[in-house]
């Protein structure tokens, strides 16, 4: 997995498009998780210290806490360092529901991925595209029927 991330640059894939015009955010890739692991069992949200959690208004992340963790990667090398757990990702938010607004402008598509399946989301120059992520009140379970 680390080799894949180290191959990305700011000129291709999901690190190509800036995610925000806010200079304080400065990430090129946004990840939303409701599990404590990502990318072959890595923990990019990290094990945060209680004083950091309190200062940022976060709670300790658990799969059943009702929150989605939102974090970002600054660039391909940042992602690769996070995946080998040398540094942590850029913590953005915790929320129960998330709505992303994508504005096309000069961009005609956004690189997206859900549950390991990538696609290019078409964007319109004149209108915003919205992507909503919501937690459901129940879990789906596969059961073997005999």
Automatic annotation (TrEMBL):
**Entry keyword set:** ATP-binding, Kinase, Nucleotide-binding, Transferase
- Is Transferase set as a keyword in this record? yes
- The chain positions of domain Diacylglycerol kinase accessory read 4-118
Where on the tree of life does the source sit, at the highest rank? Eukaryota
Gene3D superfamilies in the record, alphabetically? Answer: 2.60.200.40
Instruction: Note whether Kinase occurs among the keywords.
Output: yes
The record, for PANTHER family, names:
DIACYLGLYCEROL KINASE, EYE-SPECIFIC DIACYLGLYCEROL KINASE
| Protein name per Swiss-Prot or TrEMBL | Diacylglycerol kinase accessory domain-containing protein
Report the source organism: Penstemon davidsonii
